[in-house]
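Researcher: We're reviewing a set of sequences before deciding which ones to prioritize for further study. For each one, I'd like a predicted 3D structure that I can look through quickly. This is TRP C-terminal domain-containing protein. If possible, include the structure in C-alpha cell form so it fits the rest of the review sheet.
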Amino acid sequence: GNGSGSGSAGRGSAGREASTSGIALATVGGRGSSGGSDVSGALSPRRDTRLDSFDGGSPEREAAELQLMLSGLRKPKPISIDYAIALTTLLLMAYSTAVKSTFSLIDCVHVQGLEGRYLFMAGTIECYTPWQVILIGFAGFLCVCPAIVYWIGEQKRTERSSKAWVAVLRTLNAPYTEECRWWKVVLLTRRLLLVIMAGLMKDTPVARNVSMACVVLASLCMQMWLRPFRDRSVNIVEALLLMALVVVAMLEIPAAAFRTAQVPLTGQVKADVDVASVIEIIITGVPAVFIVVYIVHQEWQRRQQRREQWQKAVEWIDAHKDLGLSRLDLMRMDIWDPTTWIARKPDGTKEAAAAAPVDGRSDSGRSSDEDDGGDDGKRGEADSGAAAAGGGLATPLLAPPDDRRRQERLRRLVSRGDDDYLLG
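Model: Here's the predicted structure for TRP C-terminal domain-containing protein, in C-alpha cell form for your review sheet.
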C-alpha cells in the first residue's frame, strides 16, 4: 500500500535483527483492528518487499509467504466499508448515465408556430418551468463533480480517518500510479464532454463526430504518454479501447456528412456506408468478447492459485505437526510486528515468551516503562538470551493463550502507535 513508508522500513529492520539473534516468529493473535485490514487488502507475495527481510528458504520466509497467501481469509471487513466501496463505485459508474438523462431533459428547441421553447424529447412540454430550473442546477452540479472527486482524492489519511473513508480514498486512487492518482478526474471529464457533445449537437452531426473523435484521440495520447494504471495489462486494454473509439468516430463522419447534406445514399455510397457499419460492429464487439474471456480466465486462475495455496499451507502445517499449529493459527500470525515475536529456548520448547527488541529497547525495558512487573522483564531477558545462545533456529510459534500481560501490552502499543503503524 502507499501509506506504509517508514513504518514498514522500521519493522523490516527489526525483523532482520530478530532473525540474526535467533528470535522465533510468533504472535498473540495478530495485529489490532487498526492495521489488520491493510494487510489482508493490500499485500501480496509477489509485490511485498518486506519479504526481503527474511533469508530465502528459511522457516520465517515460508511463514511470511504463507500468511500473505492466507491473509484474504481473515475475518471479513465491517459492513460499513463494503457499503462505502459499493456506493462509491455505483456513483462513478452511474455518472455518465445521470449526465445524459439530465441534459436530455434540459435540451430545448423552438417549435414552428409556437412561442417559447419546448423540450426536444416531448414537444408539448414547455421549457424553463420551475421543475426544469431545478434540473439545470443539478446539471451544473454534475459539471463540477470531477473537481469534487479530485478534491476528495487529494485528501490525506489521518489516524482519525474512519475505515469507510479510507476505503473511499482507495477506491478512487488505488488503480492508478502515485503520479496519476488524479486520473479518475480525467475519466469523468471525458465522459462529461462526450455526453454533452452527443446530446447538445444533434443539429450538426459532422461537427459532433469530429469533436468526439478529437476528445477520444486526446485521451488516447494522454493514456499512452502517462500510462496511469498500475497494472500494465490495464494500460494496454485501455489504449486498445480508445483506439477502437477513435476509429468508430472517424467512420461515422462520412455518413454524417451525407445526412447533413441531405444526399440520398444509393449505389456504391450506400455499400461503403454499410461496410463501415459492419466494421464498427466488429470493432466494438471484439473488445467486449475479449474482456469477457479475460475476466473468466483471471477468475479461473485465481481459484486455481487459491487451491494451490491451500495445498501448500496444509503441507507446511503437516510438516510442523510438533508445533500444534492449525490453519486458523497461521492466518492469525502477524509476522510484521516484532513486538509479538517470542524467543525459543535451545531445547525447542514453547515456554519462552520474550518479545523482540523494538526501537533499541528490550522487552524488559518496555515492561518496566509500562508497569507490567519485574518478573515479566526478567523472564524476557532470560529467554532472549537463551534464544540468542541457541543459534539461528526460528520456527513460527503461538504465544501461550493465557499470556494476558503480553496481550495487554500489545493493545496499549496499538492504541498509542504512530500513524504509519496504525494505518499500515
